[in-house]
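S.,

Sequence below, as promised.
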Amino acid sequence: MPADPGLLYPLLAGIAGLLIGSFLNVCIYRIPRGMSVVFPGSFCPECARAIAWYDNIPLLGYLYLRGRCRGCRQPIGLQYPIVELVTGVAFGLTAAKYGWNLSALKWVVFEAILIVLFWTDLEERILPDELTLGGLAVGVLFAIFVYLPRGLAELFLPSAAPVWQSLLNAAAGAVIIAAPMWLTAAIYERLRGRAGLGLGDVKLLALLGVFLGLGAGLLALVIGAIAGSAIGLVYIWFTHKRAASYELPFGTFLCAAAVAVVLFAPGLVGRF
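The prediction came back faster than expected:
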């Protein structure tokens, strides 16, 4: 009896996600450090020992090694299996919700970019241009082939070709979501003499707008802002940090919120 396609596609996507998650770990470590993500091969950041392919199997390698490098026996960060698992689950859920098509490909690419940005902002307070600006270009390309609905184009250009409507919706989402935050940050810095929101966050908001469109992008912004404020205040209270000087990884919360919108509100971003 042939396998049920309804289960097969999410399973294949989940396995692909585990493998890609291993590569995303490489990106998370190397991109903020200006290193190539291709050469050299995987190595232990503590002892620089090359990691054998059989030790680099997603999840299983970590479990087999009991979370320690085979060479120096230093602990391997929990980030590595978490990233692999989260990527696998996200890809599997995407295939289950969107199918096995170009739309699903758009969202798994988006999720992969956001997972890397989530961790680079959380660990290094960096949102690399390679991912934010590069992701913007990728989002524009996807807008040509995957129609982005529910924007200004349907209102102002109802008779335009779908590709132009999609591109306008992507551009409007990027500008309308990111521009007010950039202006707010500029005014805050002028008045207070210090940055309140980095340009990386502004570029990330533009990225969300290009992929999600205006409505879903604003929803991700609201969710990320509320979650970031609440969790940040709790963290500051427990750790006794000074609220005035603590740098909240706002991008981390935006990334998590955007992935949640894609996975749990498919009707807002178009389901084909």
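The chain has eleven helices and no strands.

Coffee later?
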